[in-house]
């Protein structure tokens, strides 16, 4: 039987990350879906504080041209 109420720990809290860098596209790609959308907190397991910073970093990275807006 699979435990559906598995608690997830924040990736950034466990790794003691202070700032989420918009230039680090490798980390940011882990929090994008296959369609290029930002993954919600419920699925990624990121805390609320880091989810807001993550979303801003992804948006900045898209504007800078490091991440695509659309995935073909």
- Sheet-strand content, in percent, reads under 5%
Tell me what the CATH architecture is: Irregular
Q: Termini, distance in Å?
A: 37 Å
- CATH topology type: 30s Ribosomal Protein S18
Helix content: 40-55%
**How much is the average pLDDT?**
90
Secondary structure tally, helices = 4
**What does the radius of gyration come to?**
13 Å
Q: Give the tally of structural domains.
A: 1
Largest sheet: none
**Structural classification:** mainly alpha
- The backbone outline, from C-alpha atoms, is globular
Low-confidence stretches: none
Structural notes for this entry:
The protein has 72 residues and is mainly alpha-helical. The chain has one domain (12-64): Irregular (30s Ribosomal Protein S18), CATH 4.10.640. Helix content is 42%, strand content 0%. It has four helices and no strands. The protein has helices at residues 11-14, 25-29, 41-44, 48-64. The protein is globular, with a radius of gyration of 13 Å. The chain starts with 10 loop residues before the first helix and ends in an 8-residue tail after the last helix. 11% of the residues are buried. The model has no long low-confidence stretch (mean pLDDT 90).
